[in-house]
Amino acid sequence: MRGSHNGTYARDEDFRRTRRGSDDTATFGGSTQGSVTSRPQGRDQERDRGRDRERDRELDRERDRERDRERDRDVNNGHEPSGRGFVKRQEFGSVDKGIDLVQLESVLDVVSRVDPTGDLARLSREVVAQRRELWRQLDRRRASEETFEPQRRMDRVLDERRQAQTDIEGAKKHLAHLQDELGFVAREVRDAEEDLVVLREGTEANSREIGQSRHAPAPYLEEESERSDVIAKVRAERELLQNDEREIERLRARAAEIFKQKAEVQREQQTLTEKQRRAEKELSMMLTSLEIERDAVSKIRSNRIKMMDEKNVLQREMMDVSQEKWLKDHRISAPPRSDGIGLPAGAPKRPLQAQRPFDRPKGVQQDDVQRLSTSSMGSRSDISGRRKGVPAGSPADHSFRTSFGM
């Protein structure tokens, strides 16, 4: 591979030397032939060669401009850039790239032969590899740019199309406005012509009536006066038309001002509506919180009533227990068994007159127990009667329960 590159490089060098020698011979040929030809002839040849070179350069520039125009035309038409100029540039770029790599490899090969350690050879290979990678990256970049170029052209075309559509819409609106204005002017002119026709007919009728009358003078003494009268009427109509147009412009300005005020009022209404919505939302949240608090208070009150009922039940049970205990502690003993005459069995019999008539056993009498139970039941019925009509959980109920220890 390196030998082929070296051979190509040698052929390129031979071609350059041969071309340089021919140019030198063509350029400095006058000096070798100076002894044979005269000096003016050499100047004419130099002048002719200069003109030929200028002509060649001008042709090359014209050819380049033509290629550029063809490429721009292809780009504007939406085609890929083609043509011999573009292909030649790509070919020349690849040839230059190959020549540069071959020259670099040959130079680095010569330099690496001088170094006996081999570091220069390794560095040379790395440099060549990096240069190839660089060319490859450049080729990829160029290919990517060529790939995205149609998209960029499409974006530009779309932007131009949108701009053109916007201009067209504006022109259509302006044209519609002008058409409306022309229609309005045409209607006004038609009305004015109709008025003139009516006036002319009326004038002709009056003139005929006056002509038929003997003693009536002619309507117009001269044609000039009639023309001036008609012109005055037309001017008056034109002034009326101008006044109407000014009134229309004033009304349009007023309508625009009212439209602006309407827009401002709508914005203010939207703001107020938003505030009202927020206030309603806050009110609903407050009502919801109040309902929650009310439910909590009602639960607390129901729990309190339940506890008070339990307290009443416990107090009644305690009262019953204490009453039973008191009755148990003060219970009246049962009368002893008697043998039929009121004496206990086995007791010595006494004569009836010897017994005390009012001899009773000690303890609480039965009538006292009955009276105590009756009084307690009466007090309970009195308490329950007093509680009728008092709502549960009210301050009156609370004071009533506190006063009676319930």
From TrEMBL:
Coiled coil: 154-195, 231-282
Keyword Lipoprotein: no
UniProt region (Disordered), positions on chain: 1-89, 203-224, 332-406
Record carries keyword Coiled coil: yes
Ranges annotated as biased composition (Basic and acidic residues): 10-23, 41-77
Record keywords: Coiled coil
Composition bias, Polar residues: 24-40, 371-382
Full protein name: Uncharacterized protein
